[in-house]
Amino acid sequence: MFKELEEINTRPEPFEFYTADELWTNEHTARQMLSCHLNPNIDMSSRNAGFIGRSVEWIVSRFAIGPETKIADFGCGPGLYTTKLAAAGAQVTGVDFSANSIQYARDMASKNHLSIDYVNQNYLEFETENRFDLILMIMCDFCVLSPAQRRRMLDKFRAILSPGGSVLLDVYTLTAFEGRTEKSICEKNLLDGFWSPDDYYGFLNIVKYEEDKVVLDKYTIVETLRTRTVYNWLQYFSMETIEQEFAEAGLAIREFHSDVAGSPFDPKGGEMAVIAAKTEAVAVPDSPV
């Protein structure tokens, strides 16, 4: 038992493990995540319905969305943005890991007589010959990816952007990082049964990496017949660090906002949204001497 407890409290290297499939492909947790998406009153998995409405209105206005606008939403979930953007006339593609969320989104599109191209796939693996005027990655999805995965996504975004196209995404800031604290807790049926329909003990270890500006929420779920661990990583950014990552991928940030509803930028806010476009050339790191 001591060995198992030692393992539960082990501090891994930043982004050492990637367990996104546990959330999105496990039948029970996928249903729980969809339920969170569809709750209009909470900011979990998706933001609340009022914010989404304001956000879509701003996106439609800011990017002059119309019948010729081609939009790709990476991590589209159950289509809370894609449905509204298609209703505004855009040609929309949504990509998401969760089969449950994609099926719900397809059902909503059919119900509303909307033509939306939904792809049930890990967006890290998504490839297309299509080009898009606007690429979205909303709810700070960018922050859950490792540095290598983030570069892979930005390279993909640059490759599939139409001339004059834009990327809109949001991230957590260093203000939010400072607000996080390390702790360890154990509860029976942690998060009210989120992790399993059967009884379990859930361990949560919150770990901060000061140098890297990364936080890990490490969940260890101990059930009768198995023990599993889910690693939820979050990268936090300054204006300078997010600009550097984009520049290295040949993308230039043109605007900063406090959120994806276009609120004026607050340097002390917990989140920031960026609008980026292609630069002429991709920045290549210097080769070692």
What do these coordinates show?
The structure is a single chain. The chain has 289 residues and is an alpha/beta fold. It has a domain at 28-172 and 238-278: Vaccinia Virus protein VP39 (Rossmann fold, 3-Layer(aba) Sandwich), CATH 3.40.50. The chain has 10 helices and 11 strands. The protein has helices at residues 2-8, 20-24, 27-38, 49-62, 82-87, 99-111, 147-160, 174-178, 190-193, 239-248; strands at residues 70-74, 91-96, 116-120, 132-137, 161-173, 183-188, 201-209, 214-222, 227-237, 251-257, 271-278. Strands 1, 2, 3, 4, 5, 6, 7, 8, 9, 10 and 11 form an 11-stranded mixed sheet that branches. The protein is globular and about 60 Å long.
CATH homologous superfamily caption of the domain at 28-172 and 238-278 = Vaccinia Virus protein VP39
The end-to-end span amounts to 49 Å
Oligomer: single chain
Number-wise, the strands total 11
Approximate strand percentage: 25-35%
The CATH topology label of the domain at 28-172 and 238-278 is: Rossmann fold
Indicate the radius of gyration in whole angstroms.
19 Å
Give the overall average pLDDT. 92
Helical residue percent?
A: 25-40%
How does the overall form come out from the CA principal axes? globular
Q: Name the CATH class of the domain at 28-172 and 238-278.
A: Alpha Beta
Query: Counting H and I runs of at least 4 residues, what is the number of helices?
Result: 10
Broad structural category: alpha/beta
